[in-house]
Amino acid sequence: MATKRYNAEEIIHKLREADVPLSQEISVSQVCKRLGIAEQFDYRWRKAYGGFTTTPSDHTAC
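The structure assignment produced for this chain is given below.
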């Protein structure tokens, strides 16, 4: 079975989805199961994309 490759916007969206349950003290493993991703991806994505947002100003050309 082929694995899903997420683009940057999808990753940031998944991280934002995970923020609410994590703030309610639900475990990372439970949140990742709900989102359909492995815990490893959550930690890796937060390290790589933690400070990014998906506002339109991020996508403007110089």
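Interim note for the steering committee: The two ends are 40 Å apart (CA to CA). Residues 8-51 form one domain.
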